[in-house]
Amino acid sequence: MRVPQRAVQVWLPVLFAALFALFCASLPATAADNTTPADVTAAAKINVDSEVAKLQKQLDGIKQQVSNAASDSKYGELNDAVQQLIGNTNDLATALAPLQAQLQAQVDVLGPAPEQGAAITETSEVTRKRASLSVQKTKLDAQLEQIQAIRTGALNLSAQIVTLRRNALKTQLALNSGSILGASFWSPLLASQAEDEKRLTQFQAQLSDTLSATWEPDWRYGTLFYPLLALALATVGQRLLEKYLARAGIRWLPEGRLRRSFLASATVLSSVATIGLAANLLDYTLARPGDVPATIESFLDNLVRLAVFSAMIAGLGRAFLSNHRPSWRLPAIANPVAKAMDPFPIIAASLMFVFGMLEQLNTTVGTSVAVTIVGNGLSALALALTVGAIALRSNQVRRQMVEAGEQPEARSTLSGLVHLATLLTAIAVLISLAIGYISLARFLIYELIWVGMVLSCLYLLITLVTDLSESIFSPNTASGRRIKRSLNLDDRHLAQATSLASVCGKVFLILMGAVALLNGTFGTTTPIELLQKSVEIWGGKGLESLSIVPANLVNAAACLVIGIYVLRSSRRWLEDDFLPKTTLEKGIRASLVTLFTNIGYILLILLTLAALGIQWNKLAWIVSALSVGIGFGLQEIVKNFISGLILLTERPVKVGDLVNISGVEGDIRRINVRATEIQLGDRSTVIVPNSQFISQNVRNITMGNAMGVATLALTFPLDADPEIIREILLNAYGDHESILETPAPSVTFSQLTPTGMVLSVTGYVPSPRMVSGAKSDLLFEIIKRLRTASIPLASPQKMVLENASDATLLPE
C-alpha cells in the first residue's frame, strides 16, 4: 500500500521527536562510560564564569609577586601557589567534562540542520532545541579553552619561577642549600624527579633526532669527515701552528724580549684558534641538515663558547709554564716547579668544560633547583680541589728544592699575596660546601677563575705591549733607526716615544681589565661587549638609580682599590720615567704631577660613586649638603682648594721657587690641595694656606730667571785713598768665579760720615741662592787683600766718662 506524501510530511517529524525523547531518557547510561547523572548535575551547578575569573585573578596576582620576588623562599612559596593553581584548573576542567560530553551527545543526536529546500523538514521545537544546545556547547567550549589557557600560563610561569630560582642561586650567597656531606644533597641523584626525567628525555630525543639527521645518506660522509678534521686541528694542528708561529717570531722579530712575549702570545693564540675552530666544526656537523631545535642550537652555541674559554685557560697555563722553552719563560718560575705544574692547565680546562657543559645542560633543559644545586656543588668541589692542589703542589716542590740545596725562584710580595689568596679562596670554597653554602662556593670559585683569567691575560698583553714599544722605538732596531732618520730625532725623543706608547697601551689594557673584572660575566663576555661597557662607564650610561646593593659595594671597593693602584703607578711613571726625559724644568714637572694626581682622585671618586649605582646627574643632594657645609665651615677648605688649582694652572709660584710671603722666606717644596710647604734655611717647613698666595703680596725671588745681587758696604778711615780701595774691591769681585762679567761689578761712594767713608761694592751672581755664599767668600778675600795693602777698616768711636774731679767728656 502506498503511503500518501502528505501523511509522511505530517507524521515523520512526530516520530522523530518521539525517538529523540526516548534517546534522551537513556542518554546518561550510554553517552559516556564515566558520566553519571550526579556528575552532570554537579557540573550544571558550577558558576563557571566566576570560577574562571577567580583562577585568572590568582594567576595575575602570582605573576605580579614573581616580578617583585628576590629570595629563594619566596620563589618556593610562589611555585607552590602555581602548582595549586594548576591543580584547581585540572579539577575544574574535570568537573565540566561530563556536561561537555552530554551536550556533545545531544547535539550529535539532533544531527545537522536540514538544508534549505530539502524534502524532509523538522519541527520548530527541534530547531529551538538544537540552537539552545549549540549556544550552551559553544559557551562551554570557550570556557574550557580559557581554563586550558590559564593552565598553560600557570605551567609556563612555574617553569619561569624554576629558572629564576636557579639563577637566583648564583646571587643569593647567604642561602644555605644543605651540606655536600648530607644525604639531602645527593638525593636528586638517587631518586630523580619525574619532571626532570621527562625534560631530560625530551632533550635526549631532540639530540638523538639531530644526530640521526646527520647520519642520513646525504650528510653521512660529512658527518665522518668534519669530526676527524676537528680532532686533527685540536691535536696536530695546534702543535704545528704553535711551531710555525714561533719560527716566524724568531725569523722576523728583532732579538730581545719581544720574541719571548710573542712566543707566549702565540701559544695562547694557537690553542684558542684551533680548539675554537674544532668546536665550530662539530657545531656545523650537527647543524648542517637544518631544522635543529632551538634548545639544541642554543646548547651547542654555548658549548662552543665554553670550549674557547677552556682552551684559553689551557693556553695561558702552557704559555706561562713554557716547559718546551724554559729560557723563554715570562714569569719567574723555577724549572722543577714548572714541570710539576705541567698537567694542571689541561686538568683545569677539562674540568671547566665538563662542569660548564653540565651547568649549561641544566639551564637548557630547565631541571629542578635541587639538581642545579647538585651540579653547582660538584663543579665547585672539583675546581676548588684542583686550585688547592696547584697551590699546595707548588709549595711542596719549592720546599723540596730548598731541602736539596737548590734555590727556588725569587717571588715578589705581590706574587706571594696572590698565591696566598688563591689557597685561602680554595679553602673557603671547601668550607662553604661543607656547611651548605653552595651558592657562595660557586660564586667564589668562578670569581677566582675569572679574576685569574683576566689578570693572566692582562699580564701577558702588558708585557707584549711594553716589549713591542721598546722594539719599535729602540735606536738599536731597524724600525727605531728608520724613525730616527726620517723624523730627525735623537735618542732622548725615542725614549720618550717608547715610554708614551707603552703607558698608553698599559692604560688601555688596565681599563679593559677593570671593566672585565667589574662587569664581565663568566664565559660570556666578548671584547666588543667590554669595549661597549667601557664607553658606557665613561659616559655614565646605565646608572639610573641611587640604590646600593651588595654587588655594587663589591664593585665599588674593587674600583677604588684598582683606581688607587693605577693612579699611584701612573704618578710614579710620570715622576720617574717620562717627565725626567723631557726638557721641562723641575718645578713644572712637579706641578704637572700634582695636577694630574688631583684630577685623577676626582675622577676616581666619581667612578666609585658610579660603581655604587649612583648616577652622576643624581648628585644634587650631595651638592646641596655641601653648599650648607660650605656656608658654615667648609668655605676655607674650598677656598684653599680652588687657590691650589689656580696656583697649579697660572703658576705664579711653582715648586723650587724662592719666595717671601709675610716675612717667611724659603723654597717651595710641594703644592698640595689645601696648603703649600715652604722649606726655610734651617730645613724646617712652614705650611702656608694656598689662599694666601692669591690674596697677599708674594715676592718670588727666583721668578723670571732673576739674578742674585751680592752687595757689601764697608767703612774706611777718612785718610785712606778711595781709588786704591776701589781697585782692590773690583779686583776681588772680578776674580771670584761666581760673579758675572755682565753686568760688571761696580763700586759706589755711598756715604761720608765723621767716622769714615762708606764704599758699597756690587756684583751679580747667576741665582739669588748663591748670594749668601758669594758674599762670605768675598769678605774673606777682601779683608785679606786690604791687610796686604795695609788699609784698615774704620773702627767705631766710643765715648768714655772720666772721674768726677775731671768732669770732661773726652773721646777715646
UniProtKB/TrEMBL annotation:
The keyword Cell membrane applies. Its main location: membrane. Residues 45-72 form a coiled coil. It is found in: Cell membrane. Residues 637-702 form the Mechanosensitive ion channel MscS domain. Residues 144-206 form the DUF3772 domain. The keyword Isomerase does not apply. The chain crosses the membrane at residues 224-241, 262-282, 302-321, 341-358, 370-392, 413-438, 450-473, 548-567, 588-613. It is a multi-pass membrane protein. Residues 1-31 form the signal peptide. Keywords: Cell membrane, Coiled coil, Membrane, Signal, Transmembrane, Transmembrane helix. Belongs to the MscS (TC 1.A.23) family. PANTHER family: MINICONDUCTANCE MECHANOSENSITIVE CHANNEL MSCM (PTHR30347:SF9), POTASSIUM CHANNEL RELATED (PTHR30347). This is DUF3772 domain-containing protein. It comes from Symbiopectobacterium purcellii.
